[in-house]
Amino acid sequence: MNSEAPVDRLSALLKRSPVRAALFHSGPLCGLQKYDAGSGHGFLHVLRRGRMEVTHHGVAGIPEKLVLDEPSLLFYPRPLTHHFHNPPREGSDFTCAVLEFEGGADHPLARSLPPFLHLRLAAVEGLEPALALLFAETDRVRCGQRLLADRLFEVVLIQLLRWLLDHPEEAGMQPGLIAGLSHARIARALVALHEMPGGAWTLERLAECAGMSRTSFATVFKQVVGQTPADYVTSCRIALAQAGLREGRPVKWLAEQLGYANPPALSRAFAAKVGLSPREWLNRDRGDAGGQAG
């Protein structure tokens, strides 16, 4: 593999583990607004104009109170209760979407992102064209508006992820997938794995993709991603197995697709990682989804 050629760090990952956005508000927000973690959703809010306060209660590492007075983006990749406090008359102008990371908090990107990100819109390169289209769609009702707005919010999210990959230190990224995809060599191994998760991924083969020695690759991978290469391969495969189980895929088919010799081998790896057999996990997952829906 040419270690100098550009590599697409997101497409394979998002194709296999998609993220969907759904517009739920556009316009002024006055008074107190609560967004509850109990909904099970992530959120992406864009403050177009105005001034407001956002509060979080008792969450370690997150500011309890934040005052916004310029166009900003608020990103909650995982469910986290937050409150908006807006002047009752002036009202801040918002465009907001709920985010559905396939697999919820176990989605590889959701897991690697901080619980909350606040960024000035002017600081994130590439957002302006996508936001201009989004605002044009939300400013007046037209045919297909909601569908197009949802897709444009997903474009905004991809632009945001691109920026995070290129500015991990500025965004305060901790060891994890984002940090790994930000590393020029480690990213090549991760992309190869995401493109073909059922491949025979030995340490030697991953190191070769990265253009590194086995020892150097294993050391740097653990430092940057926070897992050993073998553990990350297993985590990736089990997350995809969980998505497949939700779609009704049989364990035999999943084992073939994800590089396991037979269904019992997948079931053993699944139980070691999750603490439940695939059947037990699926029954619990369906029960949890039913409880949230109720």
Tally of helical segments: 12
Give me the count of strands: 9
Order of strands across the widest beta sheet?
1-8-3-6-9
Q: Could you tell me the radius of gyration in angstroms?
A: 21 Å
Strand proportion, as a percent range, falls in: 15-25%
CATH architecture of the largest domain: Sandwich
The CATH superfamily label of the largest domain reads Jelly Rolls
- Cα-to-Cα separation, first versus last residue: 50 Å
**Helix/strand/pairing class, anyone?**
alpha+beta
CATH class of the largest domain: Mainly Beta
The chain-level mean pLDDT equals 89
Spell the H/E element sequence. Answer: HEEEEEEEEHEHHHHHHHHHH
Sheet bearing the most strands, described? 5 strands, antiparallel
Instruction: Indicate the percent of residues in helices.
Output: 40-55%
For the record, the count of structural domains works out to 2
Oligomer: single chain
Structure description:
The protein is an alpha+beta fold. The chain has 2 domains: 11-166, Jelly Rolls (Sandwich); 183-293, Orthogonal Bundle (Arc Repressor Mutant, subunit A), CATH 1.10.10.60. It has 12 helices and 9 strands. It has helices at residues 11-16, 108-112, 127-138, 145-166, 177-182, 186-195, 203-210, 214-225, 229-246, 251-257, 263-274, 278-293, and strands spanning 19-29, 31-35, 42-49, 52-55, 65-68, 72-76, 82-86, 92-101, 117-120. It has a 5-stranded antiparallel sheet with strand order 1-8-3-6-9. It has a 4-stranded antiparallel sheet with strand order 2-7-4-5, with no helix packed on it. α6 (186-195) crosses α7 and α10 packs across α11. It is globular.
